[in-house]
Amino acid sequence: MSTTELPPTERAVGHPVPPAVIGSAVERIDAAEKVSGKALYAADTRLPRMLHGAVVRSPHPSARIRSIDTSRAERLPGVHAVITSADTARIRWGAFRPDLYPLAVDRVRYVGDEVAAVAAVDMDTARQAAELIRVDYELLPAVLSLDEALADDAPLVHDDALGNLAHEFSFDRGGAEEWFERSDVVVEGTWQTARQWHGSIETIGCTADWSQDRVTLWVNTQTPFLARQRYATALGLPLRSVRVVQTEIGGGFGGKSGDDNTSVICAILARRTGRPVQLVNSREEEFLASRPRIPMRYRVRLGFTSDGLVTAKDIDVIADNGAYTGKAQAVLGAATVRHDALFNYRAVRARSRLVYTNLVPTGAFRGFGNPSADWAVGQAWDLAARRLGIEVPDLFLLNAAEAGSVSPHNHKINSCELKQCIRKAATAIGWYDKRASPKPNRGLAMGCSVHVSGRRSFGDYDGSSAIVRLTEDGRATVLIGEGEIGTGARTTFAQIAAAELGLAVSEVSVSRPDTDLTTHALGALASRVTYVAGNAVKRAAGQACEQLLDAAGRQSGISPSELLVEGGVVYGPSPSPGGDPLRLTVGEVVRAELYRPGGEPIVGLGSFDNPSEFPDGSRYGNESGAYNFVAEAAEVEVDPDTGAVTVLELAAVADCGTVLNPPLAQGQVEGALAQGLGMALTESFDWDQGAPTDPSFVDYKLPTAAFMPKLHVEFADSYEPTGPFGAKGVGEIALDPVPAVVASAVADAVGVRVRELPITAEKIYWGLRSEATDETEGGQR
Amino acid sequence: VTTLPQATAPSATTTGGEAVSVVRPATLDEALRLIGDAGADVLGGGVAHTLRRHARRANTATSLVSVASLPELNRIALREGEFTIGAGLTLSALGAEPRLARVWPAVTEAAASVATARVRRLVTLGGNIAAGEDSHDPPVALAAAGALLTLHSSTGVRTLPVTRAAQRRPDEVIVDVRVPAVRGGLGSAFEKFLVRGVWEYACVNVAAAIALDETRAATTLTLAVGSVEGGPVTVDLADLKGRRPDSSLIEEAARRAGATTSPHSDVRGSAAYKSHMIAEFSRRALARALSRAQHSPHQEGADR
User: Fold this and answer.
1) Minimal-distance CA residue of chain A relative to B204
2) Which of A612, A672, A636 is nearest to A764 (CA)?
3) B116 touches chain A (CB under 8 A)
4) Distance between CA atoms of A174 and A350, rounded to whole angstroms?
5) What does the alpha-carbon distance between residue A207 and residue A280 come to, in Å, rounded to a whole number?
6) Minimum distance, in Å, between the CA of residue A72 and any CA atom of chain B
7) Is the pLDDT of residue A517 over 70?
């Protein structure tokens, strides 16, 4: 057999035909351990002599700590340590704006702020001890809303943040005002989003153990290397003193990005007691002190020509940071610029402010600002379509970005099948048929969104690297620090490596992140893992494969260019004329390469840096090498007697390039739609004095299976030239437009435009009975 | 006697208080004697106790007397024009009780609508009533049915209307719940308004019952409203009885339900909105109850 007899690997139409394992429904490599209960999550870690921690949290939104009496807690049998800020390095830390102490120093700034902590023989004793700690507070005035925080003479959340401003930036690109003057139709409005919690099945947790001057943290973090950096800062330690090992993760969604104090406190307790300590958030703590989605108030103005071409967009965004910053300023950045890559705006102007309040700090959540932007801008587009008398899908098609588009922020769009997504979503929902035969109290709407596949955020690097080692028994091990948060990333890596190496997926294992053992990785954020890390794995596997073929070539005397690996076997022409074709197992080649004088292992190292630019302070710069897109359409029905909304059908068509694993991609889209529906309709709290009155799942209603509408999930036929086998990210995008699409469909159904999330029956009920009507809305009023 | 150890925390949310012993008496008399002891509390399906333990809420009970499997609490009997429903029956069993469903569909609908199937397999009828939560569904339907509670203690037996369940003394056990079983011309319906659709406390929950005589005049006309102050409460409709129910009667009854009850403002809605919803769902419950009453033949009595 000669390589010339092999099937061609290039397709005439352009992009390469991938190996069969790419695009196939490979079973998750962690499926069995998860369904059998063998997977070890953060709270499953068990170390000899391990203690359990509990945290004392502020019951007040703003207060001065006069004194802390820990004596009763210390006397409780079973208690090993009680710590306050006096036991910490008193260093402020944070991803972008260091403003958080490991334990509150002198002041508390929100209900849930960490004040003291306990380590004890078991969790009950620890919690009981925590309840025995008496903190004497002097109550201070608090700012419990954006308006209170921005009022003249408002009390300051942090003395060094005048006007309670944590961050602000603005830009005017293309001369927005001139374009508005030349516009025939201008729509505007103000919309507001609300805190949304990740609602992961597993709460945030850590187990810490010290050995001499080093601490190992077993954490369910999405970003082990970035978290290590921040934890080291918070602990006042050099980087080398902190090792982070990722446990199994029961849901991340941005909430386990290492911006909270749990791991830091856990490490301090372990150091004080000289024993391993485990600290896991209760569900109540998860609601009070994790980092939910940032509420944003968004004023939007959009200009159009009379024939429907968009001219300019002007936004003013105020975002509720809560008491500490974390990732919020980056989230606000995305919320301000990202969607400008969606349509061909001639000019964009923005002013964005991140405002401290005495409320639970906010941060990263699937969508990273885009759902808030879409909530406002998406609805403004819907209003514009009504004013222009153009069907929404048609208006989108007139203005949608395409391959080669460049946004006002220099976002360079490589692959882009947005128009295909819009057309397919309209078809899937039956847009034009439904428009032709409208039914009372039913409404239709469509929305689009754009997301990155990785973003340069933490310095001028958004890369990844991986090591692929071929073993003496013919298997491959992928060593990579990116990790698995439940999306199936490790399975995708195994598929990519298997495809590149000519091995079965079952012959590939993928490591978990360990900052001591794997190469540096930024982790699961910004829908980057498949695209950025997938490329690194592909290159590492490709290099290992080259080494394998070189070795087989040396061993057999056949040129490596004539060799091929398939199913774990190296094939080639016969080494001797008339002999049998070459057939060596991968294991045979690897062993023979080792077991010889001067033998060497076969190890490939691959790295890939996102071909993007580090945006400047005004967010100018091509933030990602690949952008993914979605178009979604919904049909809803409103009960006019109650205002209750039923989402009847929801269609989502995503452009994520090549779909590497259809069930995994489908799962990401379906999960994002569910989370988007929760954000739109059911997830909220009743608040009093700066905190939810019942921080539990009794009040906070996540969508259930029974709540879900009929879904139509499809993928655009798409190929990203810079992606691994043509793939782009897909983890977040489908959530982004959902709330806006539901709100616009409600407006279409009954003429009530909900401007503040969530879309409750009560808001619609009062809207239907209010005197004020918006004449641009449709519906059977 | 089983001793529940201090919770050995299978998850972060689980925390216990002091150790509690669970006692399983063999007879009702023994149970009543034990319940009279200081520190004892009645254990039905255990749901309320478990929730309290998890939430570390003050729980003064040091022993829990399990009553759900006592024979007196597990019967459902139809005699002398009355259903006697054992308080130890689970909501799952109650919701699937065919004889009761024929006469009081509101009650079986309410029982079958609670939380999830797993929760319904644990919760007992007596425990659900004794919890005293105004948002619970079965007491609303039972209030519309005019249910009476039979309370036993070591010192005697007494009867209370279900709407007075809060007057139960700590030493008393709800042994059974009685509802009239005269079926002719009777219709009832239960309605609740949910945001998510499953496993949540209702925004409003109401139940209606209407009995018609041969002239189609209402001999029974009741409307019970839950999730309100002091709930479930029955709406005073005495002056509307004797009339032939029609849309104007339903409208007036629903209006009163909204106007005379006091819902709480919470995550499920403002009090003002809930008052409108109480009226709306009262309308729906009354309309369904009326339809059922109109289709309920008079010749069928209870004593078959």
Assistant:
1) A642
2) A636
3) no
4) 12
5) 8
6) 18
7) yes
Quick one: three-class SS letters along A331-367? HHHHHHHHHHHCECCCEEEEEEEEEECCCCCCCCCCC
* B263 CB within 8 Å of a chain A CB: no
pLDDT at A120 over 90: yes
Nearest to B280 by CA among B199, B195, B206, B186: B206
Q: Judge: B270–A283 Cβ closer than 8 Å, yes or no.
A: no
- Whether residue A124 and residue B15 make contact (CB cut-off 8 A), yes or no, is yes
Chain A nearest CA to B265, separation (Å)? 9
Number of Cβ atoms within 10 Å of the Cβ of B22: 15
Name which of A474, A643, A476 is nearest A569 in CA terms: A474
In chain A, whose CA is at the least distance from the CA of B271?
A: A762
Which residues 399-458 of A are in CB contact (within 8 Å) with B? none
Q: Output DSSP code: residue A681.
A: I
- Residue to substitute from B264, B267, B274, B275, interface A, most A β-carbons within 10 A: B267
C-beta neighbour count of B99 within 10 angstroms: 15
Interface test with A, best of B20, B50, B195, B278 (most A CBs within 10 A): B195
pLDDT of residue B184: 81
Residues 6 or more apart whose CB falls under 8 angstroms from that of A556 comprise A572, A575, A582, A584
Tokens of A261: 């104090």
**Is B179:A688 a contact under the CB 8 Å cutoff?**
no
Q: At what angle do helices A262-273 and A224-235 cross, to 10 degrees?
A: 60
| Closest chain B C-alpha to A347 CA, distance in angstroms | 41
SS3 for A325? coil
- What is d(CA A482, CA A252) in angstroms, rounded to the nearest whole number? 13
Q: Note whether A279 and A269 are within 8 A (CB).
A: yes
Distances (CA, A) of A745 to A742, A771, A778: 5, 21, 10
Q: Which helix (H) or strand (E) holds A478?
A: strand A476-480
Chains A and B form CB pairs within 8 A to the count of 71
Q: Which residue has the tokens 């400047």?
A: A616
Q: Which amino acid is at A681?
A: L
Per-position DSSP letters for A5-63, written without gaps between them: GSPPSB-TTSSBPPPTTTTS-PPPTTHHHHHTT---BGGG---TT-EEEEEEE-SSSSE
Q: Chain A: give the shortest CA distance to residue B10, in Å.
A: 9
Tell me the pLDDT tens digit for each residue of A328-338. 999 999 999 99
CB A321 within 8 A of CB A328: yes
Say whether A706 and B197 touch across the interface (CB within 8 A).
yes
Backbone φ, ψ for residue A528 (5° rounding) = -100, -20
pLDDT digits (tens, 9 = 90+) for A32-88: 999 999 999 999 999 999 999 999 999 999 999 999 999 999 999 999 999 999 999
> With contacts defined as CB-CB under 8 Å, which chain A residues touch B265?
686
SS3 string, A746-781, reads HHHHHCCCCCECCCCHHHHHHHHCCCCCCCCCCCCC
pLDDT digits (tens, 9 = 90+) for A678-707: 999 999 999 999 999 999 999 999 999 999
- Please report where in the chains the tokens 């609300």 appear, as a residue: A194
Q: Give me the residues paired with residue A310 across strands.
A: A304
Identify any residues that bridge with A651 across adjacent strands, giving them in sequence order: A633, A712
In the predicted model, residues of chain B with pLDDT beneath 50 are 5-16, 299-304
> What's the angle, vertex CA A82, arms to CA A79 and CA A83, rounded to 5?
160
Is the CB of residue A478 less than 8 Å from the CB of residue A494?
A: yes
Residues of chain B found within 8 Å of residue A681, distances taken between Cβ atoms: 195
Summarize pLDDT for A557-575 with one digit per residue, the tens.
999 999 999 999 999 999 8
Is the confidence at residue A2, as pLDDT, over 50?
no
